[in-house]
């Protein structure tokens, strides 16, 4: 009678597991610190099971690929930080434009209600626009500085690289160095890029909220004025209502974009809806 010995299950490759942890961690419900702790635990367990401390030829190639991957991740995250900083500037510029328009409209309305002399209209509005232009200039200057610094880093080659001393370090020590590089250099960049991305989304949501709120207030005001004019001047009342209705398609489109913006923000941050 033959005794069938079940085939020995192959252990998953440690470096492949680290690749998966470093590259796919954003799609999992796991924090960056948990990724690092889990990776260090895997390396520690692997070191206890290994007989030879030196990596094989195949493992050396995998270590080199892991090193290149981490170096590329550092570069990608650095570029992403600069890109997100520029997006934050654009979001602030958009908010500035919206606030300027809202301020001008409300200023004209208040001056009209207070029966202020028409000569003050352009003076007050020009002051508001000049103040906005000063802030706009500072934001554009900040944007240009961010782009210039990012380009100078590329030209000067100020990139951080992980170096593995293959002749001196053991297999587990080289893996530990990779994990340390990820935790000290790559992980902080990922967190900063994520925070800047959230800031850009929040500034954008604020822009949409202010715009939609003020347009809605204006429409409500038009409806109230139309109701007041129904008994006095029916033609004028219908004209006011028509002007208010003409804005509905535009505000509905902007509201739809704002909704998509909010949903994207919630998905990026894994918020349950």
TrEMBL record:
The chain crosses the membrane at residues 93-113, 119-140, 200-227, 247-266. Keywords: Membrane, Transmembrane, Transmembrane helix. It comes from the Eukaryota. This is Uncharacterized protein. It comes from Caenorhabditis remanei (Caenorhabditis vulgaris).
């Amino acid at each position: 009678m033959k005794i069938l010995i079940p085939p020995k299950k192959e252990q998953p490759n440690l470096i492949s597991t680290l690749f998966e942890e470093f590259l796919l961690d954003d799609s999992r419900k796991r924090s960056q610190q948990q990724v690092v702790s889990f990776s260090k635990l895997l390396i520690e367990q692997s070191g206890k099971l290994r007989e030879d401390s030196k990596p094989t030829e195949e493992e050396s190639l995998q270590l080199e690929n892991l090193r290149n991957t981490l170096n590329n991740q550092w570069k990608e995250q650095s570029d992403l930080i600069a890109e997100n900083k520029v997006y934050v500037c654009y979001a602030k510029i958009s908010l500035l434009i919206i606030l300027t328009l809202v301020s001008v409209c409300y200023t004209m309305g208040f001056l009209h209600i207070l029966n202020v002399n028409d000569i003050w209209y352009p003076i007050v509005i020009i002051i508001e626009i000049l103040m906005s232009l000063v802030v706009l200039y500072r934001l554009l200057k900040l944007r240009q500085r961010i782009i210039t610094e990012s380009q100078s880093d590329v030209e000067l080659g100020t990139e951080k690289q992980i170096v593995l001393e293959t002749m001196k370090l053991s297999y587990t020590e080289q893996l530990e160095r990779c994990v340390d590089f990820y935790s000290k250099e790559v992980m902080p960049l990922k967190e900063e890029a994520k925070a800047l991305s959230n800031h850009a989304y929040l500034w954008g949501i604020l822009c949409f909220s202010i715009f939609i709120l003020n347009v809605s207030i204006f429409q409500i005001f038009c409806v109230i004025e139309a109701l007041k004019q129904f008994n006095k001047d029916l033609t004028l009342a219908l004209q006011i209502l028509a002007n208010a209705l003409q804005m509905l398609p535009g505000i509905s489109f902007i509201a739809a974009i704002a909704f998509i913006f909010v949903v994207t923000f919630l998905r990026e941050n894994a918020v349950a809806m």
